């Protein structure tokens, strides 16, 4: 998809979009008085008004500008998504978005929703079942939008699409080795470096968590290190993203139920997809920050050699873990990666993972559960980014008392706690492996949806990409 700007209308466009914050709308530049009158009447009860001139479609979108900034921008994104559905119905693939006055920020949000809402995963549809539409071009018309803004929005949308494609990819076509190969391709295209550790190297690193989860698989694990290290980086110590890369999770011997659980567990590598997409964005936009992504990857299956409840695992850190549930596997991979991150003396580490059903049960699909030991200022900046892009964050506590439930009688710790506060006890487990400023993001709720939610499609949403892009840009 091409997102660009121009000072005048594009002759080849078949649809024009105007954004207004006033239901008593008038626009002498684009509409005749009778058309403006018709639009005003439509906007009395609707948020969109459509004028069909036969040779072109005029769409006027209303958004409530009285709301707080984040909510107002989100309403603009939703209007954009509604417009994408109209364009799909009319099979229109190019639009002009007319910008005037102080509407630049809101127009960018509308275009973002329009672009994100146009996403389709059609890779495995045969020729007779292809969806005959795609949104190819959005052109901002007006002097208020800069070339740099359109370029960054275009790259941001493409980063989301790359993550969504990876999350939607079925396990039959995406094992850990194939996932790492895609990361290498992304690095070659964007300009960041990749280093892939395979099974023998992982053994040499003594990553017992990753190796244990992999025991039931016929495919080997990988550990991917993605680096973006520009010469003009403003941080000497890197910011590290750690992404969970479980390409498919059956639960292992602690087998999941099939319906509404195992059947969509191809999404369990969403954290890894998000981390890679953010590094890709940083490289494409030459972000002046030193960034590293660490992505441990495997599937989790119940083969005859699979790790079992009661096993003891030696982790990369040297600590021992008593496994009581093989479906609490993500924290074992992440723990090895978090321990490995210490060698870089990071400024900040953010891990992102579809980690616990408890997080989804606590706040549903509307937000991200976060916890960690980073400063209040860092958490505040991340929460503000969450409001900006509407991937909102709820901070959970890591009180000392929660650590009691993961104490083991025979090892340094257990991999699960009790029935209560499951998202927090998972965080307490991860906390045992960090020694630096750290934030844990549990995206189990919003990472994969069974029904579309405005511009978040059914399937992989890539929640976390826009959040981390906004956060890193704020630094």
Descriptive account of the structure:
This protein is α/β, with parallel strands linked by helices and 475 residues long. The protein folds into 2 domains: 142 residues, Leucine Aminopeptidase, subunit E, domain 1 (3-Layer(aba) Sandwich); 319 residues, 3-Layer(aba) Sandwich (Aminopeptidase), CATH 3.40.630.10. It is 35% helix and 20% strand. The protein is built from 13 helices and 20 strands. The strands form 4 sheets. Strands 7, 8, 9, 10, 11, 14, 15, 16 and 18 form a 9-stranded mixed beta sheet that branches. Strands 1-6-5-2-4-3 form a 6-stranded mixed beta sheet, sandwiched between helices. It has a 3-stranded mixed beta sheet with strand order 12-13-17. Helix 4 runs antiparallel to helix 8 and helix 11 packs across helix 13. The longest helix is centred in the N-terminal third of the chain and has 22 residues.
- What gap, in angstroms, lies between the N and C termini? 28 Å
Count of discrete domains:
2
Average pLDDT number: 94
Unreliable runs, pLDDT <50, ≥5 residues? Answer: none
Share in β-strands: 15-25%
Compute the CA-based radius of gyration.
24 Å
Structure classification: alpha/beta
Known CATH architecture of the largest domain: 3-Layer(aba) Sandwich
Given this structure, which CATH class of the largest domain is correct?
A: Alpha Beta
So how many helices? 13
CATH topology of the largest domain: Aminopeptidase
Provide tags for this entry.
475 residues; alpha/beta; Leucine Aminopeptidase, subunit E, domain 1; Aminopeptidase; 2 domains; nine-stranded mixed sheet; six-stranded mixed sheet; 20 strands; 35% helix
């Amino acid at each position: 998809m091409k997102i660009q700007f121009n000072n005048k209308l594009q002759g080849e466009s078949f649809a024009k979009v105007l954004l207004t914050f006033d239901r008593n709308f008038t626009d002498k530049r684009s509409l005749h008085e009778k058309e403006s009158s018709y639009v005003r009447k439509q906007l009395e009860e609707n948020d969109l008004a459509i004028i069909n001139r036969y040779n072109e479609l005029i769409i006027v979108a209303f958004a409530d500008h009285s709301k707080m900034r984040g909510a107002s921008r989100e309403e603009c994104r939703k209007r954009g998504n509604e417009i994408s559905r109209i364009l799909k119905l009319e099979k229109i693939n190019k639009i002009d978005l007319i910008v005037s006055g102080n509407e630049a920020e809101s127009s960018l949000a509308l275009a973002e929703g329009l672009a994100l809402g146009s996403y389709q995963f059609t890779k495995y549809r045969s020729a007779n079942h292809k969806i005959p539409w795609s949104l190819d071009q959005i052109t901002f018309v007006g002097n208020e939008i800069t070339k740099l803004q359109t370029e960054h929005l275009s790259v941001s949308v493409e980063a989301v699409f790359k993550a969504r494609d990876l999350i939607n990819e079925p396990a039959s076509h995406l094992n850990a080795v194939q996932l790492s190969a895609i990361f290498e391709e992304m690095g070659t295209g964007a300009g960041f470096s990749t280093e892939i550790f395979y099974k023998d190297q992982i053994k040499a690193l003594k990553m017992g968590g990753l190796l244990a989860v992999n025991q039931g698989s016929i495919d080997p694990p990988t550990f991917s290190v993605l680096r973006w290290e520009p010469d003009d980086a403003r941080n000497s110590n890197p910011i590290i993203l750690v992404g969970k890369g479980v390409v498919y999770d059956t639960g292992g011997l602690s087998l999941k139920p099939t319906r509404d659980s195992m059947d969509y567990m191809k999404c369990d590598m969403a954290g890894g997809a998000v981390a890679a997409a953010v590094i890709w964005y940083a490289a494409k936009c030459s972000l002046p920050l030193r960034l590293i992504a660490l992505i441990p990857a495997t599937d989790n299956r119940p083969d005859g050699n699979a790790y079992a409840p009661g096993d003891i695992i030696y982790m990369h850190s040297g600590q021992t873990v008593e496994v009581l549930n093989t479906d609490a596997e993500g924290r074992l991979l992440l723990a090895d990666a978090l321990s490995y991150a210490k060698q870089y003396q990071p400024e900040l580490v953010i891990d992102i993972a579809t980690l616990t059903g408890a997080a989804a049960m606590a706040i549903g699909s509307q937000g991200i559960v976060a916890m960690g030991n980073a400063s209040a200022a860092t958490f505040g900046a991340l929460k503000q980014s969450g409001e900006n892009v509407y991937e909102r964050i709820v901070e959970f506590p890591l009180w000392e008392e929660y650590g009691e439930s993961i104490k083991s009688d025979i090892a340094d710790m257990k991999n699960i706690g009790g029935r209560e506060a499951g998202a927090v006890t998972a965080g307490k487990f991860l906390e045992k492996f960090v020694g630096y400023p750290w934030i844990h993001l549990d995206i189990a709720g919003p990472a994969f949806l069974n029904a579309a939610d405005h511009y978040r499609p059914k399937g992989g949403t890539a929640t976390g990409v826009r959040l981390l892009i906004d956060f890193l840009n704020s630094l």
